[in-house]
Design goal:
This protein is α+β, with helices and mostly antiparallel strands and 741 residues long. The protein has 23 helices and 24 strands.
């Protein structure tokens, strides 16, 4: 190597190392030149030998060569290439120095390339990356982090992590990443809130060769949008769940194969299946619906919807059979469920229990039928009862004139019984009439039930058992009408058991709340049940048994159960029947309980020990009734006057009052065709004499004056037809002041 080449190499090395260049021009000989090289090497030794065993070895050898070179006094012109190569240590040092520099340059280039690749990978990560030291100071970060936390304007490197991310110094001591650095274990925080945002964070410790944690790498993935979307979906699901829970209809969804996917609570209640147990089961196994009449097979609504590709509605005669066998009438709608591509992915079925509605419809239909019958009944009741009153009265008078124990008296008694049976038939017709509310009395009905049922079973081979609550509440009833109900139900049960059997009559207290099964106002009721052990009622007939003129008996009139229905309805109660084949029939009716004072229902004859006389005015449009009543009362020492209508009665009463001979009692018919009736006449009489004692008597009324006589000014009521004993007893009570007012 030539002298000038060595100088050139030294200059280049000085530039590469960014070290001060020695004054090479002043070097007079090789020794001075070597001193310059030595100074250069010593000045830049740290750069050449930092963290490298190889450079340390070269430095050692160079120092040894420099020591040798320092002892050789050669001049420049004496230096030849061959000698430098083979003998001169300076050439070896220079060549080694150049090689060191070249290796360093290559290493730096590789490091720069590697760092660029690392940075590219660092920035390409799809989330924010922070590298923090053991003090949580940021040492590196990627572009994604800068874009995420754009509100921080200061220098990132060396800044505490919480100042950039959390922006709250109070969180510095509570930071969970501090624990990661301390424990040296990676950790995952899937839902970490930071300044109204949410992050999925993975923290990984970086350790040195000694296992000490020197850095922590934090990966921040912003999940705020996903969180909001998840919350929105959760809110929507909750809203859907609340909606499904709140609606009063059952909802079931299925997949395209008709398997159950979802059920709401109403659907669970009506079918008897829970969502969990019904899931993935075929529709017909859970939602078992059949035609009420055919009952051949399950109606597979999901399959029908899938076949037709449109909505299907079922409104009539469809029965849902629950898991426990309980049957309900329902209406249902089924519709396909579409996805975004308008492909059917399932079926939704919405249904509701219409059993109560159907029952109300049937009640309304029965009421209309009964109302039409009532128009007919009301038209004939008044005249018919007047005739019966005349017949009964004349029979009574005839018995009074005949010798007791003779065949005539016996025959008259039979005729009297026949009239009373005719009265019962008329009473059945009157129960259908519009108006004519029952004449109620508050009564304890325990004995009444027993006596009425046993009386109806006289001579029968059927046994009657009673199950009556000891502290049965009192109730307000028209004893004649309720006796008619008990009588009809017991006789029907008796006739159903031709070979004998048992009738059970139960009475118990019942509190009714809001219930669809019993269409009654909430309150206290007496529940009365008449149950037999006969063959039961045909299912196809059970809906018609309360219809007027419907009967399965060859000799039946079809009015018995219809009159029961009408009576209970007018008592603001409810009656229905239950029956299963070969397991007998059960009739249940409800009567409102009452806290009013109890009145004895037993009809009492007048007290013969009390001899009462007085002046009585009888107002009736029927001449036979006037004559009969006058003769009957006269025979019991009463002074009797008669009038044909209300105006005549008012005039007669005023005249007697003015003469100082007032009437003690006035008996008035309520309905006077073409004239003033008792309802209007009593008001005029009270204007004349507020203390007037009047008894209303009628066989039929379109208003409630017969039932609510006291509020209309009357002291008592005697429905037609009546026995003489009944009329005399009521007169006796009014005269003595023991009236019902």
């Amino acid at each position: 190597m030539k002298y000038q080449q060595l100088i050139k190499a030294i200059r280049k090395a000085s530039q590469d190392l960014d070290a001060p260049l020695p004054n090479l021009d002043s070097a007079g000989d090789v020794g001075e030149l070597l001193d310059s090289i030595n100074s250069l090497i010593l000045a830049n030794r740290a750069l050449l030998c930092k963290n490298s065993k190889a450079n340390h070895y070269i430095r050692k050898k160079t120092n040894q060569l420099l020591d040798v070179i320092g002892t050789i006094p050669l001049k420049p012109e004496e230096l030849e290439d061959d000698i430098l190569i083979t003998m001169d240590p300076i050439g070896v040092v220079a060549e080694s120095f150049i090689q060191i520099l070249e290796h360093q340059r290559e290493t730096n280039k590789k490091l720069e390339l590697t760092m660029e690749e690392i940075k590219a990978i660092f920035d390409a990560v799809g989330c924010s990356v922070l590298v923090v030291d053991e003090n949580m100071h940021i040492q590196a970060y990627n572009d994604h982090a800068q874009r995420l936390f754009t509100d921080f304007k200061g220098e990132w490197k060396g800044t505490s992590c919480h100042e950039i991310v959390c922006r709250d110094s109070r969180l510095q001591q509570e930071c969970p990443f501090r624990k990661v650095l301390d424990s040296g274990q990676p950790v995952h925080f899937p839902d970490w809130p930071v300044r109204e945002r949410f992050f999925d964070i993975v923290a990984t410790p970086v350790k040195n060769k000694e296992g000490k944690v020197v850095y922590g790498v934090l990966l921040y993935h912003d999940i705020t949008f996903q969180k909001q979307a998840a919350n929105a979906i959760a809110a929507e699901k909750e809203q859907l769940a609340v909606t499904l829970r709140s609606i009063a209809e059952g909802v079931i969804t299925t997949d395209v194969d008709g398997n159950i996917v979802l059920m709401n609570r109403i659907a669970e209640k009506l079918t008897g299946w829970t969502q969990q147990k019904a899931h993935a089961k075929p529709s017909c196994e859970v939602f078992w619906i059949v035609d009420e009449k055919k009952r051949s097979s399950c109606i597979n609504l999901p399959r029908d919807v899938m076949v037709e590709g449109k909505s299907i509605a079922i409104t009539d005669d469809t029965v849902l059979i629950a898991r426990d066998g309980y049957e309900r009438l329902i209406s249902a709608n089924a519709a396909p469920i579409y996805d975004h591509d308008q492909e059917i992915i399932g079926v939704v079925m919405v249904f509701r229990d219409i059993t109560a509605e159907k029952r109300v419809e049937e009640e309304l239909l029965n009421a209309r039928r009964i109302e039409s019958l009532g128009i007919l009944a009301g038209g004939i009741a008044h005249d018919f009862n007047n005739l019966l009153t005349g017949i009964l009265g004349n029979i009574t008078l005839a018995k009074m004139t005949a010798d007791s124990g003779t065949p005539v008296v016996e025959k008259l008694s039979r005729a009297e019984k026949a009239c009373m049976r005719a009265r019962d038939l008329t009473q059945q017709l009157l129960t259908f009439s519009k108006g004519g509310a029952p004449v109620k009395k508050t009564a304890a009905i325990t004995d009444f039930l027993k006596e009425t049922a046993l009386f109806a079973l006289r001579g029968s081979n059927v046994q009657c058992d009673f199950e009556i609550a000891e502290e049965l509440w009192a109730t307000e009833i028209d004893e004649g009408q309720i006796a008619q109900v008990i009588n009809n139900l017991v006789i029907n049960a008796d006739q159903a058991m031709v070979k004998g059997g048992t009738i059970t009559v139960r009475a118990e207290n019942a509190k009714i709340s809001n219930s669809k099964k019993v269409p009654l106002k909430p309150g206290r009721y007496i529940k009365i049940t008449v149950q037999d052990t006969g063959p039961g009622i045909n299912p196809k007939d059970i809906k018609k048994i309360f219809d007027p003129y419907f009967s399965t008996k060859k000799t039946g009139s079809g009015l018995g159960l219809a009159s029961c229905y009408a009576v209970i309805k007018k008592h603001d109660g409810y009656i229905h029947a239950e029956s299963k084949k070969n397991r007998g029939a059960t009739f249940i009716f409800y009567l409102a309980a009452s806290d009013a004072p109890v009145i004895d229902l037993r009809e009492e004859a007048p007290d013969t020990r009390i001899k009462q006389t007085g002046k009585i005015l009888v107002m009736d449009d029927d001449e036979m009734i006037r004559e009969l009543t006058s003769e009957l009362l006269t025979s019991h020492d009463f002074e009797v006057a008669v009038s044909t209508d209300g105006q005549e009665a008012v005039n007669s009463y005023r005249k007697a009052l003015q003469e100082g001979k007032p009437y003690d009692v006035v008996i008035m018919d309520l309905t006077i065709p073409g004239g003033m009736g008792g309802k209007e006449a009593i008001q005029k009489l009270r204007e004349i004499d507020p203390a007037v004692k009047a008894i209303v008597s009628s066989g039929y009324s379109m208003d409630a004056a017969m039932a609510d006589f006291a509020n209309h000014g009357f002291k008592a009521v005697v429905p037609k037809p009546y026995k003489a004993a009944t009329l005399l007893r009521v007169i006796q009570e009014v005269l003595s002041g023991n009236d019902d007012q």
